[in-house]
Q: What sequence folds into this?
C-alpha cells in the first residue's frame, strides 16, 4: 500500500510535533530535577 505525498507530509508534521513535545517535556523534567537538587543542597547547608 502506497501513501500519497500529502499523507506523508501530514505524518511527518505529526511526527515532528510529537518529537518537539517530548523534547520540551524532557527539558522541563530536567529543570525540575535540577531545581530539586538545588533545594536539597540548600537544605543540607542549614543542617
A:
Amino acid at each position: 500500500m502506497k501513501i500519497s505525498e500529502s499523507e506523508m507530509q501530514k505524518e511527518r508534521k505529526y511526527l515532528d510535533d510529537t518529537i518537539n513535545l517530548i523534547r520540551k517535556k524532557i527539558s522541563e523534567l530536567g529543570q525540575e530535577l535540577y531545581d530539586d537538587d538545588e533545594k536539597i543542597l540548600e537544605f543540607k547547608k542549614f543542617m
Q: What stands out?
A: The chain has a mean pLDDT of 92. The two ends are 66 Å apart (CA to CA). Residues 39 and 45 are 10 Å apart (CA to CA).
